[in-house]
Write a structure and sequence with these properties.
197 residues, mainly alpha
Length: 197
């Protein structure tokens, strides 16, 4: 991959990784509700899981959607249903009581698995592979996956860090409830572009 193409890929990766979407809304909410330290496995799962998804799309998974378009419709329906369930869970999350666990953040494996039902993650993977892989074969696919992993780490971490920074302000149960409902609404709103496809 030449330097101009790599620079363009970096721009695409940053723009898609740092902007609001299901992963970032959930990491922001996790930072608020659980703090940065407890959210680290979720962050690492997003980065690893998305890089693996990009790799699999590059190795031919996107061909399945072209060959059998119904599979994309099924994926979209399952993704939307799961996102709506997650939005409900976020909206109804309660502040942890003193001395209680108060729920738990996503684990590493849950965050990895979540990428497979995250419509934005699929759009990012398919867009990057179709725009930047060309006929570069395995080397190009590995480069794209590695760039996503490297750029995702600081991009998604920033959302969890922002969430932790808001924790003190959100100590009030009313503010936390309003925040969680707002995050749930934003997660649902992030599905609108998917529903138009």
């Amino acid at each position: 991959m030449n330097s101009d193409l790599l620079l363009a890929l970096l721009g695409f990766t940053f723009a898609t990784s740092a902007t609001p979407g299901p992963n970032n809304m959930m990491l922001l909410a996790s930072g608020v509700n659980f703090g940065l330290r407890r959210t680290v496995p979720h962050i690492l799962g997003v980065c690893s899981g998305h890089a693996f998804l990009v790799f699999m799309v590059g190795m031919g998974l996107s061909g399945l959607f072209h060959a059998v378009p119904q599979t994309l419709v099924i994926l979209k329906v399952l993704s939307v249903a799961y996102m709506l369930w997650l939005a409900w869970k976020i909206a109804h999350a309660a502040a942890p009581k003193p001395g209680a666990a108060g729920g738990r953040p996503f684990t590493f494996l849950q965050a990895v698995a979540f990428q497979w039902v995250n419509p934005k993650a699929w759009a990012m993977a398919m867009g990057a592979i179709s725009a930047y892989a060309g006929d570069g074969g395995l080397a190009a696919v590995l480069t794209i996956a590695a760039v996503f992993a490297a750029v995702n780490l600081p991009s998604v971490s920033a959302w969890a860090i922002l969430g932790e920074a808001l924790r003190h302000w959100l100590q009030s149960p009313g503010r936390l409830r309003a925040f969680n409902w707002t995050m749930a609404a934003l997660l649902v709103a992030s599905l609108i572009p998917v529903l138009r496809l």
